[in-house]
Amino acid sequence: MSDYSDIEIVEDGTTLNSSEYLADIPTKLTSGVLGLMGFMTACLVGLLAGNPGIIILGRALIAMLCCAFVGKVLGAVGEVCVREFVNLYKYDRPEPTMPQQLADLDMEKQAHESMVKNMKKAA
Questions:
Q1: Which has the minimum average pLDDT: 18-27, 35-44, 52-61, 101-110?
Q2: Is 59:46 a contact under the CB 8 Å cutoff?
Q3: Structural domain includes residue 123
Q4: Which of 30, 43, 46, 110 has the CB geometry, 3.0–4.6 Å to 51, for a possible disulfide?
């Protein structure tokens, strides 16, 4: 039997830090999309120009690599901008705390529910 002590159990209602599960998704997505768009555009332009197939594919591969690199840079810049904005937004708008009167009412309700539960068990 394996030891799973390194696995963290996350309770419902708790949210993880976005950097833990969004890692490089925007960067990889932008890179891939721009690379494929560059490849497709180069192929279409080469076909419309009447170039031979080997020339079209060679230029399309070069265009794909260039566009993928540009997409990787743009995705990384966009990812940093979004993370900065989200952190600033969270800092400016902290999560409100429960008012004391509401907390007291909640404690009284829990005490009442536990007393009713005990009385039902005793009956």
A1: 18-27
A2: yes
A3: no
A4: 46
